Amino acid sequence: MMCMYCKGGELIESTTTHVVKYKGSLIIVENVPCLECDQCGETYFSDDVAKRLEEIVNSVKKLATKISIIDYANAA
């Protein structure tokens, strides 16, 4: 599969850190499975991972902490 961003790189299975800014807070989700371009580093999530990320972020928003760091594998 080729990268849609740079049009030249190949997508490889990897993990990434997903960061969301929300009302002055940071929500950091580590070790998120993704496809990553071996040329430009652009990342892509499957539909299942994107849905789970949204669920994780929405649940953390309720905690109202300044910085939250979550390990995807432990939250999934």
Question: What key attributes describe this structure?
Answer:
76 residues; alpha+beta; four-stranded mixed β-sheet; elongated
Topology (SSEs and partners):
Elements (H helix, E strand, L loop, with lengths): L10 E12 L2 E13 L5 E2 L2 H15 L5 E5 H4 L1
What would you note in describing this structure?
With 76 residues, this protein is an alpha+beta fold. It has a domain at 15-32 and 46-75. The protein has two helices and four strands. The protein has helices at residues 47-61, 72-75, and strands at residues 11-22, 25-37, 43-44, 67-71. Strands 1, 2, 3 and 4 form a four-stranded mixed β-sheet that branches. The chain is elongated, with a radius of gyration of 14 Å. The mean pLDDT is 92.
Outline type = elongated
Q: Regarding quaternary structure, how should these chains be classified?
A: single chain
Gyration radius over CA: 14 Å
Largest sheet: 4 strands, mixed
Q: Specify the helix fraction band.
A: 25-40%
Order of helices and strands: EEEHEH
Strand content is 35-45%
> How many individual β-strands?
4
Question: pLDDT below 50 for ≥5 consecutive residues: which ranges?
Answer: none
Report the mean per-residue pLDDT as an integer: 92
Gist?
This protein is α+β, with helices and mostly antiparallel strands. It is 25% helix and 42% strand. It contains 2 helices and 4 strands.
